[in-house]
Design brief:
Rossmann fold; 3 domains; alpha/beta; 43% helix; 6-stranded parallel sheet; single chain
Amino acid sequence: MSAGRPGPRVLILVENLSVPFDRRVWQECGALTDAGYRVDVICPQGVKQDTEPFEEIGGVRIHRYPLTPATGGPAGYAREYSAALWHTLRLARRLAREESFDVVQACNPPDILFLVALALRRSGTRFMFDHHDLVPELFESRFASGPRVLHRVSALLERLTFRTADAVISTNDSYRRAALTRGKLPPDRVRVVRSAPDLARFVPVAPDPDLKRGKRHLACYLGVMGPQDGVDFALRALAHLHGPLGRDDLHTTFIGSGDAFDDLVALCHRLELDDVVEFTGRVPDETVQRYLSTADVCLSPDPKNPLNDVSSMNKVVEYMAMSRPLVSFDLREARVTAGDAAVYAPDNDEVRFAELTAELLDDPARRERMGAIGRRRVEEALSWEVSRGNLLAAYEDGGARYYNHAGGGVVIDEPPMALARSIEALLEAAAEVVGQLGPWEGERPAPPQADHARLSFLTPSGLHFGEGGVETLAADPRGGPVLARATELLSQLVGMTESS
């Protein structure tokens, strides 16, 4: 990026969480801003935090819209997603009128935000898909007995999202494999950017014995509380721990919230755990830090199903960053992430989950070893610094693109030598013109009339263009070379499109 010029403009779209509450997205915003990108975010308003319609934090401009969370099954999600799409598209168009975006990064769920990227594509905006969840599996886990058309529609929307994306960033290798196989994307267009804690912030502090509420031990859960997150499994495991196993030395705190929160509090009451279980809701980072620094054991009770088995859980890496041992069900990605920093209960066995928790409570030396393994693994392979480098590499990938009026196209991220020479020749000719033309400040003009051509140059400083009759431009000492080089490159790209 050139000194003295504004950096490329990025629009990040989020639907299922507010920002900066969405920790992954907020870290991405910070990494991009630090690298010189100009970042806008469109997301819903929070309930207790992130409530302002507009806020600028650390150079990131955040535009929020009101959204009522889904209730009432699939129909409720249809209402929520329709409202979110309308608000997002409205705000994106308004912001794009101020100045076009270089990149739109859409974070799922849901898999409908590619429609916003398509609406902005005519101005040359690239689409980066930030793949947070496998939505077909997510709906399968939430609505296992729902209509099959729900799964077919979610699978179709996923395919369209992959097909539209110029590049994909996946949260783990299992999701990357889905992009390569289900999305049929070439390997060089999919990078892994793991959700990872900032180790400067996830540092153990002095334990707070008061958080144990008079008990010898404290167990903690940190995270979202939806139907697929397994907090109900953890509560039933705790009922076994305090009942048949006879433990009365443990207090457990569940930190976070979600659309199953009220049901989980009610389940806790039915299981007669009110005296030994506490729900805090969402709390500030400093409070999370105190709880995790005090905890003896942390819980990751996500049950084994097609979604969870291949998903990386943020809480697992956060527990490890805080040097806490954890109990998990035996999930493929949980083992990839945690390794020996966790113990694993097979087959969603709640009784075994309780027994493993008890074993760790009775073995402080083992807890300390596991905690050290987890922290070391995060420092060496799973920290945000590693993910940050992969994110910026995805943004810095470049190449040639041609799209026809029907939306079909071809993306060449690693052009062959002949094409690379044509790209270089066009850029050299264009630099001469851009150096003489200032960026366009007005509304985007209508398409050129018949027998006219427009040469548009999208640079970090803005949009530059020149327009005139085709013969006049061809004879112009500056415009002529650009027109000739662009025609040559366009012919090559069209040929690649028709043969693909």
